[in-house]
Every structure is written in structure tokens, then in C-alpha cells.
Amino acid sequence: MEQVKQRSQLAQIIRERRAIKKGYNDKVVTKELVLDLLNDAIWAPTHGMRQPWRFIFIGKDQLPTFAKRVAATYPEERRENRENYLNEPNAILVVLMEELEVQKQWDDNYGAVASMIQNFWLLAWEKQLGVVWKTNPHNYDPEVKKILNAKDNEKIVGFLHWDILMKNHLLKREFLLLKSSTYLKDNRQFPIKIKERVVICTALFDDVVFRLKMDTY
């Protein structure tokens, strides 16, 4: 009988995590909850301990005003759509990165921030919180940086849209599995990879000082 490999809880969370883009509910995501997760997420690898991140939290009460201001940076025919879109989640966490002139340091900083976001995403998933990392056109608009009071040397890495998941929510995740095979040419064998699309459904799981800089919009 084939022995089933037992995965750790962390490995299971890594495999089951996904982006939650729709189906938001009206449960409130609080600033205190976000700060609690960030205090662990910022233990990400960061070259030279630069910790190049800063956060701005937009709660449900502030979303209507914030969404209207950001939507106003779009062409008139898209403003209503963008305003509705930004009002969908229960909260938004904007992640900013300190930009440095030296390319290697810039790359190091972006890698650190991306690692931190992955930590944050996994921690949120563990607590049945839905997150999606958004990189829409407004992330790159200088006017949106002004709305956020971002510094000249700060880059908007992403808007993290938030929701609290329903316990009976089923998660569908699609994978491309690579299967090894071979083909013959001129009487010689060549290895190839065959892609197989699979959909997996799973139920939800019921002394260093780090700088944590999070502002409220």
C-alpha cells in the first residue's frame, strides 16, 4: 500500500493559499488585525536590514472617499467602474517601497518587499482572511502617490485588497502539472514535459527590532 506523505501545516497553507478577488462580505477588517499580521510578516529577508517597506491602511469607513479620489485619476468613462472596484474589498493595505538609485539595492529592496508580502499573505490565509495583491494602472500614477502622501523616493508596490472568508467557502485552484515523457527522433530519445491541467478543491483550515511603519489614510 502506498504511503501518503504528511505535509506540515505551513506546507499545506502554501499550497492552499490563493488570491481572493470576488465574493467579499461585510465583515470589518481592523487596523489592529493588520498590524498583528504585519508584526510577523516583516521578519522577511532584507539585505543590510534596510527594511524598505511602509504601509498605509484604508479601512472600510475611509474607502468611499479614497476610492473616489483614486478613480478621479482615470479617464471620465472609467471613473465609475474604478470607484466601484475600489469599494469592493473591506479594507486596502497599500505597500510602499523605498527606491534607491543603485540598481542592485533597488532589486534587493523589491525582493525583500515581495517576500514580506508573501509572508503576510500566508499569515492572513492561516486566519481565514482573503487577500489579493493588485498592481493596477493607478499604482503607477504620480497623482495617486500624492493622494497617499508618498515620498518622492517611494514606489507603490501594490494595493492589498482584503476580505474575511466564509468558513464554508470552497477553494478551487488550477495547477499545471508537468509529466516527464520522451519522444523519438532519428532513433534517439529526447525528454519532454507534458502539461496537464488539474483543478483541486479543498476546504478552508478551521531579539531583532523591526521597524513597522503603517499609517492610516
Series of secondary-structure elements, N-terminal to C-terminal: HHEHHEHEHEEEE
Oligomer description: single chain
Number of helices: 6
What shape does the CA trace take?
A: globular
Largest sheet: 5 strands, mixed
- The CATH architecture assignment turns out to be 3-Layer(aba) Sandwich
Please, could you describe this protein's structure?
The protein is an alpha+beta fold. It has one domain (9-167, 212-216): NADH Oxidase. Helices cover 32% and strands 30% of the residues. It has 6 helices and 7 strands; from the N terminus they run ααβααβαβαββββ. It has helices spanning 9-16, 31-41, 63-71, 76-86, 103-126, 142-147, and strands spanning 53-58, 91-98, 129-134, 154-164, 170-185, 188-203, 214-216. The strands form 2 sheets. A 5-stranded mixed β-sheet has the order 3-4-2-1-7, with helices on one face. A two-stranded antiparallel sheet has the order 5-6. β5 (170-185) and β6 (188-203) form a beta hairpin. α2 packs across α5 and α3 packs antiparallel against α4 (76-86). The radius of gyration is 21 Å and the shape is globular. It starts with 8 loop residues before the first helix and ends with a strand. 24% of the residues are buried. Residues 166-185 and 192-208 have low confidence and may be disordered. This is Nitroreductase. Its cofactor is FMN. Residues 14-160 form the Nitroreductase domain.
